[in-house]
Design goal:
mainly alpha; 9 helices; Four Helix Bundle (Hemerythrin (Met), subunit A); 256 residues
Length: 256
């Protein structure tokens, strides 16, 4: 009788495990509840990213505030070459990763399973999703999908912009790190870090535009607030920011 009950319990557990494996989408070599949480935290963040971005664009288009009075500046040849190199590196890295995934299996893609770290990564992703919505709310009509000057453009320094000059890009960076911690899947992380890298490259272009618009007011803001928030000075955007941007400001004034 006990053996019969054990068999019945086993039959109840198997469908549940099959459902978990299906919901892990083949992205984990052992689909545990923590793996499930980690993978779907990644999907949640990037779903929020697409939905909020598209919604904000539609709202601005409906309100007539999407137009730019000045389009983005022409990048230098070095900027174009840098973007091209990043695209090639990202593409070939993704192709190689997918080929390894298909031919060698998930064990070559997912590096580890450490549930404590994965839960921390999942929590960071949830925080990033909230902060992404908050950044869009803080920017309001000043947001634009491409760098440029908008009509009645205002310098936003409240909310999340009190902690970082480019909080949206900081969110992408933290989300990329959190995606790796939540999944330990380096192909997924490669895609996430690729998006973060492309967005961070926009910082110099945006700061040139903001410098031309707000001058000394923006320089003062740069002195008081880091580009990507505390702890990211190693990326170079906060290395003598006043000198770096002042140099561009002087060049701009010389052209004028």
């Amino acid at each position: 009788m006990a053996h019969h009950n054990h068999i019945k319990q086993h039959h109840h557990i198997i469908p549940f495990l099959n459902i978990m494996v299906d919901w892990c989408l083949g992205m984990a070599w052992s689909c545990t509840p923590v793996e499930l949480i980690g993978l779907w935290s990644v999907w949640l963040f990037y779903t929020v990213f697409f939905i909020v971005t598209i919604t904000h664009y539609i709202m601005q288009d409906y309100n007539g505030t999407i137009q730019l009075s000045t389009s983005r500046h022409n990048d230098t040849i070095n900027d174009d070459l840098g973007i091209l190199c990043m695209l090639m590196l990202f593409f070939f890295g993704l192709v190689i990763g997918c080929l390894i995934w298909v031919t060698a299996g998930i064990h070559w893609i997912q590096l580890a399973q450490i549930w404590e770290i994965q839960l921390i990564g999942s929590l960071i992703l949830l925080i990033c999703a909230f902060l992404f919505v908050k950044v869009h709310t803080d920017m309001g009509k000043n947001w634009s999908p491409i760098p440029g000057q908008k009509t009645n453009h205002e310098l936003v320094t409240h909310g999340t912009f009190r902690w970082a000059r480019h909080p949206m890009y900081a969110v992408f960076l933290w989300a990329a790190i959190a995606s790796f911690l939540a999944t330990f899947n380096w192909v997924i992380s490669w895609c996430c870090f690729g998006l973060a890298g492309f967005t961070i490259r926009r910082i110099d272009v945006e700061e040139r535009i903001l410098l031309e618009l707000f001058g000394d007011q923006y320089l003062e803001y740069c002195r008081n607030v880091p580009a990507l928030g505390p702890g990211w000075s190693c990326l170079g955007f906060d290395k003598h920011p006043s000198q770096r941007i002042s140099h561009e400001h002087r060049n701009y004034n010389a052209i004028q």
